[in-house]
Design a protein that fits this description.
With 155 residues, the protein is mainly beta. The protein is built from 2 helices and 10 strands. The longest helix is centred in the last third of the chain and has 8 residues. The chain is globular, with a radius of gyration of 17 Å. The chain starts with a strand and ends in a 19-residue tail after the last helix. 26% of the residues are buried.
């Protein structure tokens, strides 16, 4: 099995040659801050199976045990690395994130108080006139969800 991914701007790309491990979301405060989201979504990968195919992530040592990899150009979170031998990849950085199935939640006591209510919020369909007009006006400069021979972000 091979899975590819990368950052939003395309400066850092990776490939995993091998089976992905367990996938989880972590509610701890460090994961919230590292991702800028409600939780950190990560999937384990064999450390030696991750190949950086374009660029390399910068790293921030967020604790005595964990370093977090991210794109130094656009800031996209990419990795959660611990013990110098284990790596988990940010699920949203994968080219096909929908193929990863979550298996657990970690640090549940730190969940944001409204987390359970998220699925009950109203949904705005993409074909609603206001939403459709907004979506049609967006021009994406994001790297596509596949490898490219080269990539110069459009500005």
């Amino acid at each position: 099995m091979s899975m590819t991914g990368g950052c939003q701007c395309g400066a850092v790309r990776f490939r995993v040659d091998g089976e992905l491990g367990e996938a989880s979301i972590c509610h701890c405060r460090m994961c919230q801050k590292a991702t800028g989201g409600f939780f950190g979504p990560y999937v384990g990968a064999p450390y030696d199976a991750v190949v950086w195919t374009r660029g390399k992530p910068k790293r921030f040592q967020s604790s005595n045990k964990v370093a977090r990899g991210f794109c130094g150009d656009c800031g996209t979170p990419l990795t959660f690395e611990y013990d110098g031998q284990h790596v988990a990849l940010a699920i949203g950085a994968l080219d096909r994130p929908g193929e990863v199935r979550l298996s657990e939640q970690l640090a549940s006591p730190a969940r944001l108080p409204y987390f359970e209510e998220l699925a009950t919020l109203p949904v705005h369909e993409a074909d609603e006139p206001r939403a459709a007009a907004h979506i049609a006006s967006i021009v994406s400069y994001q790297h596509p969800d596949h490898d490219t021979a080269d990539w110069t972000p459009k500005l």
